Amino acid sequence: MSKTRFAIFLIMALSFLAGALAAQDRGEYLILNAEYGNEHNHVDVTNRLRDLARRDRQFRVNDESMGADPDRGHAKMLRVFARGPNGRERFFDFPDGAVFDGSQFRSWGRGDWGDESWNGGWNGRESDAGDYMILTAQYGSDRRHVDVTNQLKQMARQDRVFRLNFRTFGVDPDEGHTKSLRIFARGDNGQERMFEYRDNSLIDGAMFRGWSSGEWGSGNWSGNWNGGGERHEDREGGEFRILSAQYGNERHHVDVTNQLKEMARRDMQFRLDFNTFGVDPDEGHAKVLRIFARGPEGHERMFEYRDGSVIDGSQFRGWGRGDWGGDNDRWSGRWEGEDHEERERNRQ
After folding, report:
1. pTM exceeds 0.70
2. How many CA atoms lie within 13 A of 292 on its CB side?
3. String of b and e for 296-325 (b: at least 16 CB within 10 Å)?
4. Collapsing DSSP states into helix, strand and coil, what is residue 315?
5. How far apart are CA 250 and CA 287, in angstroms?
6. In a domain, 2, yes or no
7. What DSSP designation does 190 have?
8. Final residue of a domain: which of 60, 90, 124?
9. 175-219 pLDDT tens trace
10. Domain endpoint, select from 232, 252, 275
């Protein structure tokens, strides 16, 4: 009888131990590769890490535990590249002296991980390549805003998508007022562009190059809350400088220059309808948006967009910055646009 009880107890204990070990090996991330060193000098320590994983779950990172010193006398770290449950790759950094815990990695103790075809460098593979390189990130309002570039880097390394609110960055620069995150980035064409996300928006870093690696924010931002600046003016946008924007028809139309500026700061393109600007100057009748702009030759030109049209700001200089429609260069005030013949007569 006692032997039977002992056998039952032993089976239960082994089952519990197996279950506990299996639970420990159910992390979210599957390790692909491990490098030890720094950006200048580093070595592959995937096999070394696998040996440590099979012996112990925790260890302290240093050149002794890693079995290598690729850059003697300089700061080093263990960098682990892994794939998350969403299929995207990211890396985890453990500086010298940090205690490494493998519980967040799948199949850690078994060591059945690692990608033999791994060909990434110290900054990972090029799977993190969007169209825009982030220059800076600012959170707040036009009156009060703060630099949150470093906080955004930390969040980017943890997850690609997150929801924005005043708690996201641990700072509320304009308490009680509407705030937004403005990410200033440079595209492949060298132009600076601003992306705006209001509170409660979802931030998805897929369009930004090097998002999860945090290899961005190195500076050279124009320093303007509205984006761009004098030194970017010639590089940002098309040939025409906007003077005014009017919505309606010949009988009834209203100035929507400021509303257009707000939309331009949020997006390069949008579709026009009577709800776009929050005003319907001639209800029940056909309306258009007329953008009056000054061309490179100095003449005023009118661009017309009917309801249902897609407005594309790429042909207008400084579109995303909204630094147009000011007092320095006035619109002729004519719904039909400037009378070029009259202008030439006045010049003579």
Report:
1. no
2. 23
3. eeeebbbbebeeeeebebeebbbbbbbbbb
4. helix
5. 9
6. no
7. S
8. 124
9. 998 899 999 988 877 778 888 888 888 887 877 887 877 778 766
10. 232
